[in-house]
Amino acid sequence: MSTALPTAPDALAQRLADSGLRSTPQREVVYDVLLKKRDHPTADEVFVRVKAELPTISLATVYNCLETLVQCDLVRAVNFERGPTRYCPNLRPHAHFHDERSGATHDIDLPPELLERVNAILPPDYDAKSVEIIFRGKAAAPRSSEHRVASSEHSAR
Amino acid sequence: MSTALPTAPDALAQRLADSGLRSTPQREVVYDVLLKKRDHPTADEVFVRVKAELPTISLATVYNCLETLVQCDLVRAVNFERGPTRYCPNLRPHAHFHDERSGATHDIDLPPELLERVNAILPPDYDAKSVEIIFRGKAAAPRSSEHRVASSEHSAR
DNA sequence: CCGCTATTTGGAATAGTTCCAATTCTCACT
DNA sequence: AGTGAGAATTGGAACTATTCCAAATAGCGG
């Protein structure tokens, strides 16, 4: 607690500190790279870009850093659910709710008017063939005696 | 074109025919399995279930059949983009548009009121920690003066 | 019944990611 | 400044989901 705190030159250090984590060159550069070119790069692409500055960094570290940044809410992982693809024969418009607790995926009916509204946010020159809406969170545990596999169970891994 | 058409005992055969594909036991059973237990199974899970009926089926076939069903619009693949996870430092609420042509992912700003509306479709006992909205389709090629690399490029694989 | 093509099959190959054990780094404390 | 403890990084091996491929099979049209 000694010290002239650096007047927040960067948000990253701050956020990391908030989570009790250290600011490291690797984390900084990974974050910089993401900020500098906002093209939703993959971990591999980030790896390549970061290596330009930190030639000895390892891919594992890039994954670690990305994970850390996601934890700190500085970065969003776009392909959230990295598990296997799931298949669903429900043809009505619906969203999916992914229950973190059980690993189950539930269909949530989607009022057509809402679907339209969602589609309406697209600029005119974007032609969407499909939309996918996915929630993640916790569904109230069906308390008590329920063994009812209402809509889906996957062994939570 | 001979024939007493079987009076559509099942939609599957129909749909397949429409796409110029054959109805096979494997496809039937895979589809049945999906209809019978609507728990968003993975390909592996489907594989296991189908084997109960067709013990000699291979995993590759299950993948093939699932793919076929998706093509025929009888089934939806929930994990749409099976590629690598992408990372995005945009913290404002936004959806993603995945351009099939270029492979690029663009951020689409999401009016907060719409976000609320979307959240509102959840039954009360569902507690969503996050929502992800993903469009897929084609974005008009930004011809002419637009250099706006608004958000991203990935080499289309 | 024959041939042709669609489909299935098993196994090998790939891709993305995670895991792990060993090393290095940093900070706090003397 | 020196040291010990915990964090973070590293490289490589391991894993998992999926795709690819070439050979075998099956089913329809003639």
Tell me the total number of β-strands of chain A. 5
Individual helix count of chain A: 5
- The biggest beta sheet of chain A, please? 3 strands, mixed
Question: Which radius of gyration of chain A do the C-alpha atoms yield?
Answer: 21 Å
Mean pLDDT of chain A: 84
Question: For the largest beta sheet of chain A, what order do the strands appear in spatially?
Answer: 4-3-5
Distance between the termini of chain A: 42 Å
Structural class of chain A: alpha+beta
Question: Unreliable stretches of chain A, pLDDT < 50, 5 or more residues?
Answer: 1-8, 144-157
Question: Can you give a write-up of this model?
Answer:
2 copies of one chain form a homodimer. Chain A has a 3-stranded mixed sheet with strand order 4-3-5, with no helix packed on it. In chain A, strand 3 (94-99) and strand 4 (105-109) form a beta hairpin. In chain A, helix 2 (25-36) crosses helix 4 (59-71). Chain A has helices spanning 11-18, 25-36, 43-51, 59-71, 112-119, and strands at 76-77, 87-88, 94-99, 105-109, 126-139. The longest helix of chain A has 13 residues, at 59-71. The N and C termini of chain A lie far apart (42 Å). The first copy, chain A, contains 5 helices and 5 strands. Chain A is of the alpha+beta class. Strand 2 of chain A pairs antiparallel with strand 1 (76-77) of chain B.
Features:
homodimer, 157 residues, alpha+beta, three-stranded mixed beta sheet, DNA-binding
Provide a compact summary of the structure:
By secondary structure, chain A is α+β, with helices and mostly antiparallel strands. Chain A is built from 5 helices and 5 strands; from the N terminus they run H-H-H-H-E-E-E-E-H-E.
